[in-house]
Write a structure and sequence with these properties.
By secondary structure, the chain is mainly β. The chain has a single domain, classed as Translation factors (Elongation Factor Tu (Ef-tu), domain 3), CATH 2.40.30. It contains 2 helices and 15 strands. The strands form 4 sheets. It has a 6-stranded antiparallel beta barrel. It is extended. 22% of the residues are buried.
């Protein structure tokens, strides 16, 4: 399932309505929704190999506009997917939404260009129930002196008579992965507006065909 609702704050939003394109916004919010496709490799001008993840980003459509007067804050809800119903919805908080209306289209080339720094939020791969070695990176125990069956055990978890209990937050075996993850410091290397493909240098969270929220990073 998609991760919990993301509320994305922004300092400024600059909008410019296009008269030629119906319902299309030329200058747009710095956010777009997409789907992770695959990770390949490319070479830069210095012939240095780098990982590049392809994302099918946009077009997104504004399906709801929230105002401070009516809802207590300014935001727009973006949708991705053109089946019978949108398959991916996320709400983006804004400072100004004067020019937004339901039906506006967000295109990939109106948000990003090569060289932009971005941060990507998605749901990490779920790895099921895991022990402390895989989940937290614990060191294995000794394999001698009677420890033949205790190599991957967590060891002692308590503190004796005082306080006589296990503290909350103790690193223990449990479900690993599946949480919301944001990776920052990534760079856009290619923008294919014809096929709605965005090439991002680096590795992105989630499995193939998982949904992502891509935001432009300031600085």
């Amino acid at each position: 399932m998609p991760p919990a609702l993301f509320l994305v704050p922004f300092d400024e939003v600059y909008l410019e309505r296009s008269r030629e394109a119906r319902g299309k916004v030329k200058k747009m919010i710095n956010t777009i929704l997409g789907k992770k496709l695959e990770t390949n490799q490319k070479f830069d001008a210095q012939e240095k190999r780098m990982p590049v993840t392809l994302v099918e980003a946009g077009p997104c459509y504004v399906v709801q506009v929230k105002t401070k007067e009516k809802d207590g804050y300014n935001a727009v809800k973006l949708s991705w997917g053109e089946k019978k119903a949108p398959v991916f919805l996320r709400e983006v908080r804004l400072v100004k939404i004067d020019d937004f209306k339901v039906g506006d289209e967000v295109k990939i080339d109106s948000v990003f260009k090569p060289g932009d720094k971005v941060k990507v939020t998605g749901q990490a791969k779920g790895k099921g129930f895991a022990g402390v070695v895989k989940r937290w990176g614990f060191k294995s125990g000794p394999k001698t002196h009677g420890q033949s069956d205790r190599e991957r055990a967590p060891g002692s978890i308590g503190l004796g008579t005082t306080p006589g209990r296990v503290f909350k937050g103790k690193k223990m075996p449990g479900r690993a992965g599946g949480q919301k993850v944001t990776v920052s410091g990534l760079v856009v290397v290619s923008v294919d507006e014809k096929n709605n493909l965005l090439g991002i240098r680096g590795l992105l969270p989630g499995h193939k065909n998982s949904f992502l929220l891509i935001r432009k990073q300031n600085g």
